[in-house]
Amino acid sequence: MTNKQKELITATVPILRAGGETLTNYFYARMLKAHPELKNTFNMGNQANGRQKSALANAVLAYAENIENPGVLIGALKGISTKHRSLNIQPEQYKIVGNHLIASIAEVVGEAATPEILEAWTVAYYQLADIMINIEKEMYAENAAKPGSWNGWRKFVIKKIVSESDEVKSFYLYPEDGGAIANFLAGQYVSVQVFVPELQLLQPRQYSLSSGFNPEYYRISVKRETGIVPNPNGMVSQTLHTKSEGDTVMLSAPAGIFHMHKEAKSPLVLISGGVGFTPMLSMLETNKANIENSKTVWVHGCRSHSLHAFREQLTTLKEELHWLETYTFYDTIHAHENHGDNVLPGRVDLHKCKDAILLNDANYYICGPELFIKAQYQSLLNLNINKDNIFYEEFGPQIINLN
Ligand SMILES: Cc1cc2nc3c(=O)[nH]c(=O)nc-3n(C[C@H](O)[C@H](O)[C@H](O)COP(=O)(O)OP(=O)(O)OC[C@H]3O[C@@H](n4cnc5c(N)ncnc54)[C@H](O)[C@@H]3O)c2cc1C
Ligand code: HEM
């Protein structure tokens, strides 16, 4: 890329920033019309609620802003590429995205998009695409080399379904071929692909593995997503909740950059909101299986006692495990309810349990909705926790960037 082209890119960033979402809306509509088969690959729920579109817009802008030194984005790109790997995105698909993105810039920006500007963006896009294709090539190779692992989709049988609360069900998934399955790092997810009859499409979604590694099955725990009028119900979670034991789903191999770190001796502070408890359960079970268990404090918030999934198992675990301490916040606690010590009313407030969570060298893992993550992250900073020790995952496209 020439210096002149870099200047053109830098000069057009403000235009893209101003109209970023208009462009990406236009781009997605254009691409999915020409390639309707890609509707089976993209999350059509995120298309409808707009979240994936802003994720792509942010990534393109971040790249353009760092055009002089794209190396600084490698960390962020690995997060995107691990999701791409779990969705089986292939190098040739970058051409489809590139063609439609550049054509969309030309059509949306109009005459101001001169041939030089379009050429500069074409070079920039393919520079970014090449970096990502190479990262993903390595990821596919590494994944294929892992015992029990596989690239693409593999059929799994739902052998057991357990209701964990009024709205969460766990699914025990066994490979139909009876072969081995890959180990994973506690906190990672699998992509699950199901056929959604209302859309007449296959749809993928990510679900964190909610138990420690078991060589025979993967367990996921899914909240039935009920739309708040006028928004529709969640497509895949509702479809999964209608499944019976013996039904099958397709799975890609475990992936994800949010996971417990190897130096298991550091204390763990797990902070979850709602269904964000799933990766924490996996971390807890994995810690239990470690020879040297780390002191663990789990702070969890949800709407009420009846919606607190895995509540009883957690109480049993707490009695058994001397290194585990829990704090639970319920939005609503009725006057007649008594849930014992460490169960507090209202939203999660880390200041209310700060003596328990301020532990030397602890790693802090946050999982929950966007606003929950932002609030807990800020509380940890207020409590002087170092950013390097805070890890978080949002159950949607990577949009927040706090570290
Ligand atoms: C890494 C990761 C791990 C995850 N782990 C878990 C887990 O362990 N357990 C779990 O339950 N979930 C988990 N999720 C979330 C999960 O992937 C799904 O996003 C979730 O199940 C909802 O999917 P759905 O198909 O049911 O909803 P979708 O159909 O995708 O809808 C999502 C939301 O968009 C709204 N919406 C849809 N259409 C519109 C519209 N036209 N206008 C406005 N709003 C609209 C819906 O009302 C709903 O609230 C995880 C996500 C990620 C990224
Ligand atoms: C340079 C090109 C690309 C960039 C910058 C990019 C960027 C992104 C980003 C930022 C995300 C969100 C990551 C997350 O959810 O954590 C994402 C997800 C995704 N990308 Fe890409 N991507 C590119 C190319 C492609 C290609 C070629 C395809 C295949 C056609 C593709 C398909 C997807 C899908 C299916 C998702 C998940 C969507 C969702 O869950 O809503 N991407 N990408």
UniProtKB/TrEMBL annotation:
| Catalytic activity annotation | 2 nitric oxide + NADH + 2 O2 = 2 nitrate + NAD(+) + H(+); 2 nitric oxide + NADPH + 2 O2 = 2 nitrate + NADP(+) + H(+)
UniProt KW keywords? FAD, Flavoprotein, Heme, Iron, Metal-binding, NAD, NADP, Oxidoreductase, Oxygen transport, Transport
Q: Do you know which SUPFAM superfamilies this protein is assigned to?
A: Ferredoxin reductase-like, C-terminal NADP-linked domain (SSF52343), Globin-like (SSF46458), Riboflavin synthase domain-like (SSF63380)
Q: Name one GO biological process term.
A: nitric oxide catabolic process
Cofactors (names): heme b; FAD
GO MF, one example: nitric oxide dioxygenase NAD(P)H activity
Q: Cite the EC number.
A: 1.14.12.17
Task: Please state every residue range assigned to the domain named Globin.
Answer: 1-137
Q: Name one Pfam family in it.
A: Globin
Q: Which Gene3D superfamilies match?
A: Globins, Nucleotide-binding domain of ferredoxin-NADP reductase (FNR) module, Translation factors
Question: Can you tell me where the transmembrane regions are?
Answer: none
Q: Where is the FAD-binding FR-type domain?
A: 151-261
Q: Which CDD domains match?
A: FHP_Ae-globin-like, flavohem_like_fad_nad_binding
Quote the PANTHER family the UniProt record gives.
FLAVOHEMOPROTEIN
Protein family according to the UniProt entry: In the C-terminal section; belongs to the flavoprotein pyridine nucleotide cytochrome reductase family.
**Under which name does UniProt file this protein?**
Flavohemoprotein
